[in-house]
Amino acid sequence: MNIIEISRLTYVYAAAKENTPALNGINLNIGEGEFVAIVGANGSGKSTLARHLNALLLPTEGTCKVMGLDTARPENLWDIRRQVGLVFQNPDNQLVAAIVEDEVAFGPENLGLPPAEIRLRVDKALQAVGLTEQLHFAPHLLSGGQKQRLAIAGALAMEPKCLVLDEATAMLDPQGREEVMQVARDLREQGLTLICITHFMEEAALADRVVVMHQGKIVAQGTPKEILAATDLAKWGLEPPLATEIADRLRRRGLNLPRGICREDELVATLCP
Amino acid sequence: MPIEVKNITFTYMPGTPYEHQALRGVSFTVEEGAIVAIAGHTGSGKSTLIQHFNGLIQPTTGQVTVDGVDLLGRDKKSKAAAKEAARKVGMVFQYPERQLFAETVYEDIAFGPLAHGLTAKEAALRVREAMSQVGLDYESYRRRSPLELSGGEGRRVAIAGILALRPKYLVLDEPTAGLDPRGRKELLGKIKELSLKQGMAVVLVTHYMEDIVALAKRVVFLRRGEIILDDAPRRAFLQREALKEAGLKPPRTVALINRLSEAGLKIPRGVLTVEEAAEAIYQSLSPRQGERQQRVK
Ligand SMILES: Nc1ncnc2c1ncn2[C@@H]1O[C@H](COP(=O)(O)OP(=O)(O)OP(=O)(O)O)[C@@H](O)[C@H]1O
Ligand SMILES: Nc1ncnc2c1ncn2[C@@H]1O[C@H](COP(=O)(O)OP(=O)(O)OP(=O)(O)O)[C@@H](O)[C@H]1O
Ligand SMILES: [Mg+2]
Ligand SMILES: [Mg+2]
Hints:
- The complex is a heterodimer of chains A (273) and B (297).
- By secondary structure, chain A is an alpha/beta fold.
- In chain A, 36% of the residues lie in helices and 22% in strands.
- Chain A has a six-stranded mixed sheet with strand order 6-7-8-3-9-10, sandwiched between helices. A four-stranded antiparallel sheet of chain A has the order 2-1-4-5, covered by helices on one side.
- In chain A, 49% of the residues are buried.
- The model of chain A has no long low-confidence stretch (mean pLDDT 91).
- With 297 residues, chain B is α/β, with parallel strands linked by helices.
- Chain B contains 13 helices and ten strands.
- In chain B, helix 3 packs parallel to helix 6 and helix 4 packs across helix 6.
- The chains are: A alpha/beta (273), B alpha/beta (297).
């Protein structure tokens, strides 16, 4: 079943009426439980697309459906928002509470969950992002990366069906990045749909499917092998992942390596069989 | 003369339940024209440290001087000198988009140069120059509202606003977070060029070890408010203990080489760039290349 169905979606920011649309005729279906990476240059429309997935933005033309529910119908808003968790690139835009634990409890409270369940979810989410020590901190006193972890915890505590990470790991240290991706992948084992917007092709290489955006359009999509290891990414302002680049260089030196290497474990397995 | 940080400590909100000692005796010098990177786990004190470099934060104890001038002015005259010295330090904050405020991208970038007393004409030149340095097309962006940009576009405008000041010391807190791969590469290249050509010193705080490889001659690891290592990246990234202690990982290239050698490939350490990594792997394979090619087929 598709959890997301986007059809002929065009979006024009009001301020930019005279300009080109930020999204231009997007068609995209995402299956339940799928892990999709969205990549593309700055300004290509990734965040604009993400904001449609929980009805923060509504299509200027075309439709966006989440679990069969049209985002344009106000009566669907509640159901859509509780099923789609969205974490933005800049956490300051989404932190609301005065204390870390309230911040995380905010969503579950709005769902009307019993206090014991809320407590459980808050502790679990803070543990997952490594913020247990800062439980009683004020969010604005946290460092940049701590804020980003907090925003992620807030989304996790909602236990959404679909999690959209819009460069949510950009301000994290390497360890934090790995931890968050690991949490996301664990949740995926439990059936979560994961949509990950990233500038790191190494992260995109872990997805089931990679979608490339360019100037408001989807210009390519396929498996990481098809997109990251076999396409000229430079024309979209992108670069191949490290494993692909090393494999290419070794091939140019005359080594006979199979095509389609895009993850480091694949490269290691190929070079050290 | 350099930026000198002399044995500083810094405590946030002393005497409250939030009291937190973010820096514990840090000494550190940024020589003129140097490119220094600062890395460390989230919350290790990186942003706190660099905000001392232009006097935005005053140390709880210790001293910070820029070109010999103490940034803590004690009387009217030394306050003016401190302000003047702090101006030599251009600072791009961690979420710089937050500080964008003007009506247009043009005005936002021109604000600093005008505030520093440049004429409108001089400022105009600076704006064009800075926009090209960060890869923003002048005609398409100058009239846009800085509040209505994508994440990466906003980041570029914020960086341009500081580059337009042509600071003697450029301090960047996570400047490449949110930039697309080409933008990241080009920005780092541009900064390196400015450093070489104009002798601008650069302090780069980053979570991306690849940025450090691309740019820095020297890297400092911060751990819980203390410097635990200060060395050339080539040596620093071989220090597994220090990396672990600082909560860091080596750059992807180094991690890959480590994995390959754990998998049995005889490969030299000390490799940093992608070119070097590919070459080292090639060399380590080539004696047995014929045999290996058979197997790969
Ligand atoms: N609030 C806004 N008002 C008007 N135009 C906007 C607004 N936000 C974004 N845009 C424009 O819409 C286009 C798409 O922006 P979007 O934020 O979706 O890009 P993105 O792919 O997420 O980029 P990045 O990688 O920089 O985050 C860009 O040209 C941008 O300038
Ligand atoms: N205004 C404040 N009041 C109290 N504590 C603060 C304040 N600002 C920061 N801190 C704390 O000081 C420590 C250092 O923060 P700092 O912002 O310097 O970290 P950082 O190394 O830049 O982290 P990141 O990589 O996440 O940006 C953190 O533990 C943070 O929670
Ligand atoms: Mg974006
Ligand atoms: Mg910081």
